[in-house]
Amino acid sequence: MAISDDLPLMRGLEATTIPDAMPLVLASGSPRRAQLLRAAGYEFTIDPASDDAECGVCSRETAPELVARYAYRKAESVVRRHDRAMILAADTVASCGGQILGKPHNEAHAAEMLRTLSGRRHDVFSGVCLWESQSSRCIVEVVRTELQMESLSETMIRDYLDTLLWEGKAGAFGYQDGNDWIEIVGDGSPSNVVGLPMERLKELLENFDSIAETIEATQSETPTSNQ
How confident is the model at residue 213 (pLDDT cuts 50, 70, 90)? Predict the structure, then answer.
């Protein structure tokens, strides 16, 4: 479901120029990420990553490590299809008490996630990968936003599940859905909770030439990311 253009998180987003005027390609089928980019004024095409780019959680892998790896793998699965482009990929999960909460598999799983988060502070991590195909230079970074969820009654959980707004969302909730039972702690990024930290994306594009790393043809590990 698309984000309402009336929400504050959709206002005031700013675009910047893409290095070397490269075409921007979003390696994601997420309508929310696409809408955030459009709201900021970016021109881009969509080329979703392959399904096997998300290949499960490795043993003892932290949430920041997971989203960095997934973002990198998503960009990697798309970059070879473009001779000259800036590939943008991202992945987002919630994390509470060391437990990684991705997209719920079904309604029962969503209810379980909401009960886990009820009344607790938790983090949302988004991994962002920018990969310039022509020179094979790449940036991977992780952005964290802390949230507080109020205690949810079973009625509140049921009412939210009935909306189906939880589908396809990390942690089984959407910050953009206008629920008054979830709020950002401090000055964290609302767009990061939705799935793409727009403020940091702008900074990464503006500084791409100075901080991007060259990816070797045989490199399989995710470049070191800032967390």
Answer: very high
Query: Where is 130: in which H helix or E strand?
Result: strand 121-132
CA distance 84 to 214: 15
Question: For 55-93, what is each residue's pLDDT tens digit?
Answer: 665 557 899 999 999 999 999 999 999 999 999 999 999
Q: Where are the beta strands (DSSP E) in 70-163?
A: 86-96, 99-101, 121-132, 137-149
123 annotated active-site: no
Total-model pTM: 0.89
Task: Give residue for tokens 């970059």.
Answer: 79
- Report the amino acid identity of residue 205: L
> Which entry of 52, 91, 123, 177 is annotated as an active-site residue?
91
* Tokens linked to 62: 């932290």
